Amino acid sequence: MLSGFGKNRCQKCKTERKVRFCLRFNKDLGWQCCNNTRIDKKCPGECAYHPHFEAVSASKDADPTKPKSPFPALKTDSRSEFEHFVSLYLDLWIHHKLPELNDLSPLEYAKQDKEAMLSWLRSFQYPENFPLGKLLAKLDIDLEIKTTLKPDPEAIVQSYLEQVIKWEWDGLYAITPNDLKLEGTAANYASLISDIPQLRKTKEFDVLSSGISQDRSVAFVFVELNHSVSWTLILIELNGQWHLRQHLASDPQAYYAQNKLYNDLAQLLSQQNSVITDSDRESSSSVIPNPDRESSSSVIPDPDRESINENITKLLKDAFKTYPDCADLYYYQGLYLQGIKQFDQAKTAFFNAITLDNRWTAPQYHLALLHLQSHDYDKALYWFEQQHNLEPSDPRTLNNVAACYINLGQKDKARDIWTAMLTQYPEFTIAKDNLDRLSRDL
Q1: CATH class of the region 153-249
Q2: Residue-wise pLDDT tens digits, 39-95
Q3: Which CATH architecture has domain 375-442?
Q4: Which CATH number applies to 254-369?
Q5: In sequence order, what are the residues at sequence separation of 6 or more whose Cβ sits closer than 8 angstroms to the Cβ of residue 173?
Q6: Over the stretch 320-355, which tens digit does the pLDDT of each residue have?
Q7: Helix or strand run (H / E) with residue 334
């Protein structure tokens, strides 16, 4: 494989991606070669990845009354790397004679007395991700391991990318946090993801590293696709489960560059006099512009406006290369297209944003408004209702629903909504004004 001779390859195997410098051989190694090297206990102690083969507690919070573990403690950058090392170590350990097992090896002792071996193993504490099932299998002990652990980020990513490799696009949406059954979003997600060239070409992948934020709300898994492409998958934790939120066509550091990107886009859009508010992305309870306000044409002189539009177009084009499934980018793209009156394309952009984050109400509002302006009242009603479901305490969303019923000729439904709003939201005078206007028109 030609890619194996690239500058980013492990200097030992020439195949896997190099991830760290080896003090022992003065070479850059991939983590598999690092594991294969450090398993012999000869790596220098000053290396941060040197395994500590002396008996150590499984964790700093370990019960001091419990015996200490015979297994090494070591630094790894992912669960995949840890399990690979443990597997290598167990292959040696099961044949090593131990004084505490009557000078028998663990494999010999297990063959002699499985219950005694299990009792001895139960006296130790193990890290949360220790592959106990693999240990028992190597000792030829048939015992079902019951665990309450839920799939970790690496397991979620593995499942996701295995479906990508098989082109099973339709099953991917269930792995995302988008739990609302919104019309057309599942099929649209499959289309958006299958259109990403790097994913469409993926035949294999290797985990390079993974990590979880301190508050355990966000995780990343950094992988290499096809031994050549750097790719990061961002996950978020909801209700105790990990879900895939976003792809980055880069290393994990790109995740932290997004806020500046959004600020740059917001500034350019404000110059374009686009319909945008600072609070749109702060939470799902966005401050909604006046429903009666139309997208105004820019008052900037034509040469300046053209320059601004070119800057926005270039910034979006470049950003999508790194953030191909970013809901925020599609939302800003929708605002831009709305500002230059390319309304059909703006609808597509807002729908993409909804697809990628279906509890974000700002793009739902703009999509509904565009359908309302194009007299597609059924679709406008649908999206205003979805927005109201997520923001039931905001009278403006309910007012927009009533306005759609008026345009659909269902005045009784509109009247019922506005009448109820007089009691529920007495300070919302627009409802009374609309009700009075409706009464005059009858």
Answers
A1: alpha beta
A2: 988 999 999 999 976 544 445 555 555 556 788 889 999 999 999 999 999 999 999
A3: Alpha Horseshoe (1.25)
A4: 1.25.40
A5: 185, 186, 189, 190
A6: 999 999 999 999 999 999 999 999 999 999 999 999
A7: helix 327-339
